[in-house]
Amino acid sequence: MPRTVHVIGAGLAGLSAAVELQRRGRRIVLHDAHAHAGGRCRSWFDGTLNTTLDSGLHTVFAGQPATQRYLRAIGAADQLAGPALPEFPVVDIASQQRWTLRFGDGRWPSWLFDAASRAPGTTPLDYLALAPLAFARMGRSLAQTMRCDGMLWERWLRPYFLGVLNVEPRHASAELARAALCGTFAAGGPGCRPLVARHGLGSAFIEPALRMLQHGGAQIRLNSRLDAFEFGAHGNAVDAVSVGGERIDLAPGDAVVLAVPPEVAQPLVPELTAPDTFSAVVTAYFAVEAPAGTPLQTAVVNGVVDAVRTGGGPLAATIRDAGRWLDTPRDTLARRIWEDVARVTGADPETIPAWQLVVEPRAGFAAVPSQEMKRPAVRTRWTNLVLAGDWIATGLPATIEGAIRSGQLAADVLQTQ
């Protein structure tokens, strides 16, 4: 009989680990404390807007290897959509200036020498400001590593880094900024083409994975909360897990992937160090269709919102690093967001349509040096217990790519134990 792996947590990290391990012949038992899978990457039907909403405006890039591998494995590679070319429309709310960053269709960055493709007001030499990132040191912020001002910063680098790091970029870890930039642009123009879930996050990332796991014989146990681990007398393995009041013994060769948030993992795993400061995201959905010809997604500078999305459902906008807005009354915040959305789309700012806010106060660990250094490794001191989650030491910020990579790393470790 194949060895059993109990995957605790059915978010993206847990699903990624389960998919990889099942493909390698392991028997999977997937547990989640909630009545639904997906964690912070899911979809649900909203009665206010009478439509399906996502937990946020997540974007992936065509060249991200872990995400593409996962989608191919679960048969969902066709669930992402995006522009045919790597183009990024931008609107400056303050000046109402609009431009489109175009990164070309090859590995050679010829777009640097085309004024219509790069950020307005910049020259090719300005992009040498990125060179110090190649030598980014552990524990250093972006502001301590490279120049964080000027046209290039305001019109491309700051919006980009805010989108992938979800903290004020000047304070962000330079190592994580470098990893995000290289992960997006290393494959050239085609690899940085932005993609979104065409029918929602659930249809792209969650439901196909659950179907694949069930078809392969996995047990899916929702409303199944991990209570405790029982560690062996010699201290090098987990002997049993207690889930929902049931004690489950682990046979030789069995293992556990713990893919839960850090605040859940720490009480369960002795002496576990983990990030303890988090960044918030606010997403607003509006019951209105965008005008014809509006880009799928537009980055916003000098506004309250950081991006506006017009395709695949209701008009939506997101605020990243949104901690300063968490105490704002919901109707006040919705109206303030709508003012920016109206400026981007040309809608009437005085007539706000029906709306819904999705507030995630712990969207991911804060991608600053002090928190990066608290991220634990995949391996633990127990040979049959590994960790997964976007908060472990993947080398990436808290993104879809980071969560999926963590699950794949956990599967790799168990295969070599």
Automatic annotation (TrEMBL):
Stored Pfam families: Amino_oxidase
Domain (Amine oxidase) ranges: 12-413
GO molecular function, one term: oxidoreductase activity
Classification via Gene3D superfamilies: FAD/NAD(P)-binding domain (3.50.50.60)
InterPro entries per record: Amino_oxidase (IPR002937), FAD/NAD-bd_sf (IPR036188), SQase_HpnE (IPR017830), Zeta_carotene_desat/Oxidored (IPR050464)
Taxonomic superkingdom: Bacteria
Annotated protein name in UniProt: Amine oxidase domain-containing protein
Organism: Burkholderia cepacia (Pseudomonas cepacia)
